[in-house]
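User: 3-oxoacyl-(Acyl carrier protein) synthase, Reinekea blandensis MED297:
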Amino acid sequence: MTSFPSVVISGSGLWTPPYSITNEELVNVLNENADRFNHANADAIERGEVAPMAKSDAAFIEKASGIRERYVYEKDGILDINRMRPNIPARAENEMSQQAEMAVAAARAALDDANRNATDIDAVIVSCAYTQRAYPAIAIEVQEALGIEGFGFDMLVACSAATFALQRAYEMVRSGTARSVLVINPELVTPQLNYADRDSHFIFGDVATAMVVENEDQVAAKQYFRVLDTKAVTKYSNNIRSNFGHLSRAADIDAFAPANLFHQEGRKVFKEVCPMAAEHMSSQLAALDIDNQTVKRWWLHQANINMNILIAKKLLGRTATEEEAPIVLDRFGNTASAGSIIAFTLYHKDFANGDIGVICSFGAGYSIGSLVIECVQG
Ligand code: CO8
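Assistant: Predicted structure for 3-oxoacyl-(Acyl carrier protein) synthase:
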């Protein structure tokens, strides 16, 4: 009978951009833009021909989302009322791309944490909400920069890009097509935000995370996490959408049109995704015969603090503590697929042998991905 190797997460890494933006800063530029628009269109607004632009509010943002500030890859341009998007000049074809640079920084931190060299890695998956070009893959650029042999590829699953890529890595190690895999999530999402739209201008921040997934036989880290199970599900929904893509040019679609930027029906997302995510994790744990009450930590996707409070309540039948379900979105905002990986990276060192935790993402698609992991303390 074939025996499959045990698969572990042996290291994780985080790269944080040098700039951050507060709610107040974002609100100021949105409100100034709204005043300008409303003033310029006063007569048409008065006649009811044009809808006035609504203003934003920092206190609303913090209460509705839990976000106070977010890191951004480039601050220049976002707060300029004549631009309202980051100013990130194109790089020459012989220079490293921005996303590969972020990915390499996070990957180096994960390799250090796993006590591994790049030469130990067999495959690289770059998985995030957007890649800055279609080809050559960012993963192959990272592979080249780090001197990794084997293969690399990019994949996109919006907010579940990290957990879905971890599942791919798990399957690769388990089947023997690779012994060590680097999973990297360079989330450079702020260029796709509509900074004039009060419903979404505050939501996202940039960051990069990485994890090393490998065969337990060869682990070099003192503390690592055995993957007990992975689970992924998708269900089509238009409630979170961006239409920008490679056909935009052929369809004469303006890259600045709101439909081509991130947009969502936030209320519907909240109502539909919370029960799906809670049920997803509960049924996964039940199938493993693990009682939710014995889970030490829930490293949940970081989209909205109220979503996390509600999901944790559904899982535990009571309000979870900060230790049980840590929140990072107050400082980071929603970082697409990286949120749950940031939470894991910052909050796992206190785990002892046998402690169990769950990493779970939920978002656009809809897509939900989760891993149940058990600490091994060597
Ligand atoms: N300031 C002041 N008032 C506001 C603002 C604002 N900025 N925004 C809305 N309001 C008003 C509304 O107009 C409304 O007023 P009224 O009651 O008069 O109609 C009132 O405040 C309440 O509005 P909502 O009901 O919309 O407010 P909520 O309490 O629902 O909070 C949230 C809005 C925070 C957006 C919330 O609905 C939410 O977080 N929902 C879930 C969102 C979510 O998880 N989305 C996942 C997206 S992430 C993802 O999948 C990755 C995609 C890929 C990355 C893309 C990167 C660009």
